[in-house]
Write a structure and sequence with these properties.
The protein is built from 10 helices and 17 strands.
């Protein structure tokens, strides 16, 4: 799209989707910088940001996805995956359009790659106010709300208003994120966000450069630490293990060691199976042996809770006490049964705290 037209602006306004964006910086000469994600796009007059959801119209940065919902479902929180926060609870999961990543293996590309300026009012529910969102969650007997399916950071205006109301209504809040928000964007949402479920795709710059089109994971790591240490969010990490790309022992060990040293040994690490998709359709699914080896690497690095995802295993998703080995939480797909844990998240047998918020 070369430039934003007045009719497009009118349609977005009529749909309730257009609001002035947060964290905008006027640079002069008609240019505006968006400081919501680490790309920090400089957008010229009439232009669109990389995520295709931020526009510069008359020297003002606008968000084009306020109240725009592409997907919604009442899900078990374990589906995010989040295992150590309100296990067995249901959260209302919602997504919008656009993304600040271009993962060549993205399985949600239909919403992540779309141009929100062109598609917003034709492909989604629009005008879903924060009040409406909270009501939808409560009507479905959910205990929380998760922003997921695409990258939540680019939806900051809307999520902030929703999260404030969620806290008033007694609902917990979850980000399912690629982690590429700026520190200042995290600080905006920080007081109202309970769970930060972040993808750690690799410790290697080459992976991010070639498969995602960002230079390095370093900023992602920094913001994850900020979520944990400055905002006391509950943090869980996911690594989708892709054959020949991030499955080396060196990379997996670095990932596990970083989580252990920077976020703490009680931080859950989910290692999940890759399935062929997109530009990586020629690769095989991740061998079970690779996943099992990753679990062993994580435990040898000092992590207490390493889980196998996207595969059927008898014990791979259970939580065991790291001190005495007793079974604390039994999981079979999305069926969750606390068997050895008290209401304070401690092991029945030896009272070890299991970093689980009940």
């Amino acid at each position: 799209m070369a430039s934003i037209s007045d009719p497009q602006i009118s349609k977005l306004r009529a749909a309730g989707a257009l609001v002035e964006a947060l964290l905008a910086e006027r640079l002069g000469s008609g240019c505006v910088r968006c400081n919501i994600c680490q790309r920090r796009c400089v957008i010229e007059q009439g232009g669109v940001g990389y995520c295709r959801t931020k526009i510069n119209y008359e020297d003002v940065l606008y968000d084009t996805i306020y109240g725009v919902i592409s997907s919604a479902a009442a899900d078990p929180i374990e589906k995010k995956p989040v295992f150590h926060y309100k296990p067995g609870s249901s959260c209302f999961s919602v997504g919008t359009l656009g993304c600040n990543f271009r993962c060549v293996f993205c399985q949600n590309w239909q919403i992540a790659y779309v141009d929100a300026v062109e598609s917003t009012i034709f492909t989604c529910n629009t005008g879903v106010t924060p009040d409406n969102l909270v009501r939808l969650a409560l009507d479905r007997s959910c205990q929380g709300v998760a922003w997921t399916y695409n990258e939540p950071a680019i939806w900051l205006n809307y999520i902030l208003d929703c999260a404030k109301l969620c806290k008033k209504a007694g609902l917990y809040t979850v980000y399912v994120t690629n982690g590429y928000a700026t520190p200042e964007a995290l600080d905006v949402i920080g007081p109202y966000l309970d769970v930060y479920r972040v993808d750690l795709k690799s410790m290697e710059d080459t992976f991010y450069k070639k498969l995602i089109k960002v230079p390095s994971p370093s900023g992602i790591l920094d913001v994850a630490v900020r979520a944990k240490k400055q905002w006391s969010m509950h943090v869980e990490c996911v690594t989708n293990i892709i054959p020949n790309w991030n499955d080396s022992e060196y990379n997996l060990r670095r990932t596990a060691e970083w989580i252990c040293s920077s976020l703490g040994p009680d931080t859950p690490w989910h290692v999940t199976r890759f399935f062929p998709y997109g530009a990586l359709s020629h690769l095989p699914p991740t061998p079970l042996e690779t996943l099992q080896h990753a679990v062993a690497i994580g435990r040898n690095a000092g992590l207490h809770y390493v889980y196998l995802g996207n595969v059927q295993t008898e014990h791979g998703e259970n939580t065991y006490c790291p001190t005495c080995g007793a079974l604390a939480v039994e999981r079979r797909r999305y069926s969750v049964r606390p068997v050895g844990i008290d209401n304070n998240g401690r092991c029945f047998r030896d009272h070890t705290w299991l970093n689980i918020r009940m």
